[in-house]
Amino acid sequence: MTGRLEAQFAFLNEADKLKQVLRATTLADGSRRENSGEHSWHLALYAMVLADQAAPGVSIDRVLRMLILHDLVEIDVGDVPIHSANGAAHGSAETVAAEAAAADRIFGLLPADLGADLRALWEEFEAAESPDAVFAKALDRVQPVMHNIESGGGTWISYNVTAEQLEARVGTKVARGAPALWDWVRGRTRAFFDGRA
């Protein structure tokens, strides 16, 4: 049992480093950049509060687990914003390989049974094929949108994001997992972009 606990706490101590990874997105009030630990917590809260937007049969417990784990690989890889000048790296073969190596290392800190279980949840989220993962991915995309709206444009302004880019890069994923939610959010994004025209 001592060895198992040592491995579990080694993982937990490593996971604390997620709080040091700064994201491109600011807090909703625009006062500073959000860190990935805060983002993961906020997404878990999104899942609890917006559970009524999930498709029938989606397990919010599994969604919560995915969202808490989904960005742990950023400890090694960092945040790769989809709208940045380096946005092409988001989802590229190089980034996917780097994230897989990070997952090997980070989940490998755990006892084998637990590491395999958590790694499988992370992989399911990344694949975004199961209903649980599709909903989790939708929330992961919508939260930064809301922060950008609340902060008066935030990184959309910095990265010269257009309404068309937002629809293509974000809207399709949100609409796939939470169509009514995207309809509501889209109205706010249109108001923002129309106000800038």
Automatic annotation (TrEMBL):
PANTHER family hit by this protein: 5'-DEOXYNUCLEOTIDASE HDDC2
Keywords associated with the record: Hydrolase, Metal-binding
Domain HD: start-end pairs: 15-182
InterPro entries: HD_domain (IPR006674), YfbR/HDDC2 (IPR039356)
Entry's Gene Ontology molecular function annotations: 5'-deoxynucleotidase activity; metal ion binding
Record's protein name: HD domain-containing protein
Cellular component annotations (GO), alphabetically ordered: cytoplasm
SUPFAM superfamilies in UniProt: HD-domain/PDEase-like (SSF109604)
